[in-house]
Each structure stands twice: as C-alpha cells, then as structure tokens.
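User: Teach me something about this protein's shape.
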Amino acid sequence: MRNDGMTSANTEASPDKVEATSSEKGLARVAQSLARWTEKWFPDAYVVALAGVFIVAVAALANGSSPRTVANAFGDGFWDLTAFTLQMAMVVLTGYVIATSPPVARLIDRLATLPQTASSAVSFVAFLSMSISFLNWGLSLVFGGLLARAIARRADLRVDYRALGAAAFMGLGAVWALGISSSAAQLQATATSLPPALLKITGVLDFGHTIFTWQSLLMCAIIMALTVLIAHFSAPKDAAIKTAQELDVDLDDHPAEVAPRSRPGEWLEYSRVLPILAAVLTVGWLISQLTSKPVLTVVSSLNGYLLVFLMLGLVLHGTPRKFLQAISLAVPATAGILVQFPLYAAMAAILTKAKGRGGLTISEHLAHFFTSIGGGGSFAIVIALYTVVLGVFVPSGGGKWLVEAPYVMQASTDVHMNLGWTVQIYNVAEALPNLINPFFMLPLLAVLKLRARDLVGFTFLQFLFHLPVVLLLVWLLGMTFEYLPPILPATP
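Assistant: First, the predicted structure itself:
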C-alpha cells in the first residue's frame, strides 16, 4: 500500500530535508539510513504477503504435499477469515471517523495548548497516542497525527515536527496490541472468528486470560513509561529543531464544508434524528448485554466493540451526511487489510491443512521445533524474537497471528506454557517491527504530510530500548503463570 495522497512537495526530499538528514548524528543517522534503504528496496506489503503464500506453498511441496493438496488448501482457506477481515477494517474505519469528528477536533485543539516546552510536547503526544491505542489503534494514529499538527501550529512554542510525528506513532509502535483492539486477542476471544483447526488447539481465551491479566497491564505500563521518557529526552532542542514550516508542511486542517441541502428528500440526511435513535438503540443493547453477561465477555466481543464505536462516530458527526463524508475519507486507509488478510488466511490453511510426509503439516513440524526448545523463559524469548523478525518482513496489523498461532500455540500447549500469556508474548513483540518497517506509518504520514524517513530516526531509537526490555518482561512475568488447558465452547 502506497501513500498516493502525499503532496508533490513530500514525494521528493527537498534540499532542506536532505541537509537535515545529513546533519543527524549517531543512532538517528543510522535510522535515517535504514529508512532510506527500506523505502528504496522494500516492496509493497501486499507483494510481501503474496510472496509469502508462494514461499509457504513451496515449503509444503518440499514437505511432501502434492500440488493438488496445496492448491486445495490455498483455495479452500482463502476466504476463511472474511468476517475477521471486515472486523479489522472496521477498527481502522471507526477510529478515523471518531478522530475527525468536530467534538474530538475541538478536544485536540484544547489539548494542544497544554504543553509548555518542546520536550514535554513530544512526550505528551506519545503518552496520549499510547493511551488511546489501548482502545482503538486506528483512532490512535489519526488522533495523534492531528494533535501533532495542532501543537505545530502554535506560534508560542517551537517544537520539532519530526519528533511530534514519531510520538504520534507510539500508540501503534509500542502498546497497541496490548489493548482491546488487538486483533490476536480479539480473535482468540471470538469463537466464531477462529478457524476450526486453531479453535481445537487454543480454545476460547477471553480478555481476562490475555490483555486484562495483571502481568499484561504491568507490562503495558512499563513500556508506556519507557516510551514517554525516551520521547522526552530524545526530542531535539534549540538549533536542532525542525519545525513544520521548515519542513514545508501545510498545517491547514479546516474541514471541507458539507454541501447545503438542495431537495426535500435530503432532509433526513441533514437531521440529527436518526443518529440519536440509533444511539438509543445501541445504549439499550449495551445495557442489556452488561446486565445479562459477565463484563469481560461483553468487552471481549469484537462485534459489540465495533458497534459501539461506529454509533459513537455517527453521533459525534451529528448528521448522516457529515458521517458519510467522514466514512468516504476513511475507507482508503482500510485497503491494505482488505486485500492482505485473505492471503494470510490462505497461508494459514496451507500450513495447517496440507499434509506431507508422515501425515504431518508444516505447522506440526514447526510446533515440534518450538516444543524442542522447552518451556520457561527460553520459550518465551524465542517466540518473541521470532515474532519480531517475521514482523519486519510481514507487516500485518496482527493478521500474522493467523499464520503463527497454529504451531506456536500447539508448542505452547506441549511445553505447558500459559496460552493466554503466549498470546500476549506475540502481542507485545508484534508492535516492535512497526518501529522499523514504515508500512503502518502510512495513514499517519498522510495526516502529517511527512515521509517515513522523517520519523524513523526517532522510532528506531525507541526500538533499540524496547527490544531488550520486552524480552526481559516476557521472561520474568511468564514465570508467574500456570498452565491452563484450552477452554472449548459448548457444542450447541
């Protein structure tokens, strides 16, 4: 997915930007070089996913599967995750719609007046971006980007716009997968979304077994604190600051006016009546759910989560016409998910269904490998490192869990590692590659009107600190868990 919405001024680096890049020192300069290499040589994420399908297919053939078996697994599994693909696209869409609503825009303008120094402004954006990503990572990207732009518009505060942009990305680069929009945690909590083969291995894991364990919440708090500190002390000062104006960025965020009503049939499109009625129905449904089911079960429902966020977006925009205008702007940001997730489903199907020599699939061979590592800290560290390395080459927004889960969770069961904590090991490690690979920066870059190389110097620095801390946390906190067998849903 390319950011075709970038202005021509940002398509090619200006002389000022080239000079700024060459003046970077130490780790930031290394990170800038890495960003330039990635932009030049790294293919589109869709191409990476497509290549992954063929690599997995070749591996299955090498494992002894027949061409017919591989082809059948590919075709039969391609649409296994249709519902989940739509759900993940809706996470992005609802986040964008809420962030661009008038009440939230006014809130952003008020928040932008709070920081009093350049360093505190950068750390403030990082903190809010991470806090919001716990609720919705799509909302975090857009909210953080708009907040960075609002602070950059202040005439009384000189702040480095690159550092602000990198801070706005920290929600997706640090803790998003430890929050309730985590696709892996949502998938594991929703029996109807789980592929049958994976459901047999893992059972259903509600949020009480994953993101709401005290260990996961503590890990999230530690990473947030670390990120804020790094953002604060790495923010450029004095002559090193590059403002938005110096980077030739247009900071005008005035929304396009909605065309006036031109015919009687459009009355309801410009009325608040239907959004209010829809909100009443949603609140009634939510009260019914909370009074008839355990709170964790309600919170863990991906469909319920999306319903509430979608109706909230409708209410915040006020009228159906304004809401639909926001939707039309949000839809392009979902394209990568819509075309890539079916490929991940196909990969997962080949891994788990294409049996080869000895009646074993690739997934079973990988499970045996991870089982051979043994349990305890070594297993947790190897799984985390494997997830990081794979995530650099397969940016997926959590969709990669569908590829990893069958063999990782089977190995976790074999070595008696807590299944919920295994999901969280994946989740915390899944965020780290986002600090290196610029794929998921694209929606944010469209808001900021910057290029990936403007941010990666700061995000790469975060990565260097995050990696050892994450490995230490998954090892130490993993020792506090006990193994629990899979909880399978009751058969109707």
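Now, about its shape. The chain has 25 helices and no strands. The first helix runs from residue 8 to 11. If you'd like, I can walk through any region in more detail.
User: That's plenty for now, thanks!
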